Amino acid sequence: MSFVKFKLPIINIRGNAMKFLKTAAIAALLASGAAHASTELLTNGSFEQNLQANGTWNIYSNLTGWTGGAYGIELRNNVVGNAPDGVNFVELDTTANSSMFQNVSTVMGQNYTLTFKFQDRPGVATSSQGLEISWGGSVVGTVNNSLGGGWQTVSYNLIGNGATEALSFKAIGTSDSLGTSLDKVSLTTAVPEPETYAMLLAGLGLVGFAARRRKQ
């Protein structure tokens, strides 16, 4: 009898542990699913929140969500090109090379995906164009000479430091008011790779298999 009394608590503890593992695996899977439906972190990434009449352009000190540099931000609607998203797009070589930035609150170690579209100004030399992209004050890349002269999509992986970081774009070509166009800027939390889901599902299956073995 003493032997039976000794074994029953062990079975109970293992049963509770198994339930905990199953719950943890399900929670992890659900959390990954929530991450998949990532939220847009930027305001006015396609510059549609600022009204600009069709066939016109203007230079603004700032745009909704964006702080302009020394020479402002040039906003265009169907002028020297057409926006790939909505009707507005921007150029940062205004009267001279300028810039713009937006501050983003980040999570320490979190991966973020930055995407945007850029386009050469038609009929203008490559040396006159180009954009530099910075994150938290550090340059992460430059773009120039879009493929075929059309709108080209670029993507970067960024990492948060747990503080507010500035996402910045700056014109870097010849400062002659003829620069690269920019539109559809997006920043989201990075979506888990398919392998992540596979590992979670496999782990959940192993937990279930172990539970069935113990019942037998």
UniProtKB/TrEMBL annotation:
- On the tree of life, the source organism's domain of life is Bacteria
- InterPro entries, A to Z: Ice-binding_C
Q: Which residues form the Ice-binding protein C-terminal domain?
A: 190-214
User: Which Pfam families does the entry mention?
Assistant: PEP-CTERM
Q: Which UniProt keywords apply?
A: Signal
Q: Which residues form the signal peptide?
A: 1-37
Q: What is the protein's given name?
A: PEPxxWA-CTERM sorting domain-containing protein
